[in-house]
Amino acid sequence: MDSWIHPGLIFIFGALLIPLLSGRLRQIYLLVLPALAFWDVLTMTPGVYGGFNYLGFDIVLGRVDKLSLVFAHVFTLMSILGFLYGLHVKDTGQQMSACFYIGGSLGVTFAGDYLTVFIFWEMMAFGSVFLIWLRRVPASISAGYRYLLWHIFGGLLLLAGMVLNYQQTGSMAFILIPEAGAGLAQYLILAGFALNAAVFPLHAWLPDAYPQATVTGAVFMCAYTTKTAVYVLARAFPGYEVLAIMGTAMTIYGVVYATIENDMRRILAYHIISQVGYMVAGVGIGTELALNGACAHAYAHILYKALLFMGAGAVLEMTGRSKLNELGGLYKYMPLSLIFYVVGGISISGFPLFSGFVSKSLIVAGAGEAHHTILMVLLLLASVGTFLSVGLKLPYFAWFGKDCGLTPKEPPKNMLWAMGLTSLLCLFIGVYPQALYDLLPYPVHYDPYSAYHLSETVQILLFTGLGFFLLVKKLSPEGTINLDFDFFVRGLVSGFYWVARRPLQSLDLAWGEFYRTVVLRILMALARFFAWFDRWGIDGVVDNVAYGTRGLGEKIRGVQSGNIQYYLALALVVIFAIVGVYLLT
Amino acid sequence: MNWAEPMDFLRNRLKGLKIFLYALMGLALVFDLLAPRHEAHFFGDHIPGFWSVFGFAGCILLIKASKGLAHTILGRREDFYG
């Protein structure tokens, strides 16, 4: 089809209608809108659309190829599930900001030039921060500001890189950058992208902000920001060694924190870092197999991580608690939420027949085939930690463990339906991986269900479980928080506050005093001078002109006596004068 | 249907569940002896039962190391940031 409709614009313009609708109509609209966008992506044919020239820059809104399509596919599919999960929410602000957020994410996915990337990049940051702020508690307000500061910083890195890159190459085209020719400009762009992918040490915004978002907001947030960043990294920086190493480090870093954290949603947030680490490592390894793995893992991850956030969100929604040391024994009251959560948990842990198994193994095999043996072993160690922290520890202490005495109900039906459908998708991808593999940018020659891979996976999972139950007492949740890099950033912020309060404020005071005593006096003196000048200079001139005119008027009035004989005489004098002058010359 | 019932059913038979899981581990080890190794990437891929040891040791190591970090340098009271 020749006419191409940008699915991001469906969300962005669609958002404007949301506050005008209410009740059942709005709920229907909130499901139709993402479904339309999903259908739009399904019916797209590869090509370049929406290109035009603006101020000499070639703007491309719609670069549709296999890489952008697989991400757009899961982004729009996820939006249906996310809006279904949040269908009971009456706060239209959340739904509107989710629309702008998703629209920004799709805008980046289809962008063919850095200007378009940048504009939609910023739209994502500003759309998503409202999903934090709209929880309307003091902790989320301040976390939202920190989140925004981080993303503005990342946006500035990207902007600086873009401008320098333009200066060097004369092009704004958003294309693959070979590692050999990459300099400061390109690494600035990389750093801007890496911040959104929560690459260590630019990751601290994620576990700081996501646990403070609204219940439904967190479900959206865990899907879009980091995976859009994985997309742009895969587009511009495949095969960068630094990404392979940092990605692998992230996988371990995330699970270590996920093992010791207490807040359910912070555990899941740290675990996003670990999972995105797999994708970043896949991009960094850069072979067809590993890049396929990064895309497949992003696809599968969006679904099961959203499912995990839905499950933890259901507990938070119904109990008002999210700390594991305040939870426990909920299986009797929220068994369905538990079942759906566990489906997410075993998907993310890579159980055979579930989606993580068929996606993660592409990256691990990619690392093995590219002879990155150490990276491969570390990636497998991280999957041990994944099962330990997200698959076992979190559900054990939330739904089993010691009974916390709460008797919550299951969450609203729409939340259960969203969790159920997402669970089905996780199972479907695991059972029929070809459906996912067909979407990937390169042809897949890999069979996850080979005997050895099955054996390896089952052993790792079973014996991780054994380790967990032997040491389960050691893992009992504690009411503490753990330091992370945001310690330094908070320090910087407090330092900035101090500078603002002490030196800047005293400078302000001193300036105020100086202004009052010196500047104000000079200004007053000047004002007095001008007042005098106005009175005696300007007014004098103006008045004298006025007096002169009045005098002339008096004299002319004397001439205008109204007697006809004077006029005739005057006319004769004038005629004689004219004739006389004429004759004499 | 009350979905908590099958869970209570299992919780009342923890011993049986344990035996089942141990049997499964044994089966996994036997299966590993028989599985053809086409895609060996390093030495561990040639040792039968390597991934069992890896999973168990990795799990213990991660718990010990991360809890150790939490109890020494990382852990703080909840009101640390105010």
Largest sheet of chain B: none
Gyration radius of chain A, rounded: 35 Å
Strand ordering within the main sheet of chain A = 1-2
Total beta strand runs of chain B: 1
Calculate the terminal CA-CA distance of chain A, rounded to whole Å. Answer: 91 Å
What is the arithmetic mean of pLDDT of chain B?
Answer: 89
Specify which chain pair forms the largest interface.
A-B, 55 and 48 residues
**Fraction in helix of chain B:** 55-70%
Return the domain count of chain B: 2
Strand residue content of chain B:
under 5%
Provide a short characterization of the protein structure.
The complex is a heterodimer of chains A (585) and B (82). By secondary structure, chain A is mostly helical. Chain A has helices at residues 7-15, 23-42, 66-85, 92-110, 114-133, 138-169, 184-196, 205-209, 215-236, 241-260, 264-285, 288-319, 335-348, 355-369, 373-399, 413-431, 434-437, 451-470, 486-501, 503-559, 564-584; strands at residues 47-54, 57-64, 480-482.
State the main characteristics.
heterodimer; A: 585 residues; mainly alpha; 3 domains; two-stranded antiparallel ribbon; 21 helices; 3 strands; B: 82 residues; 2 domains; 3 helices; flat
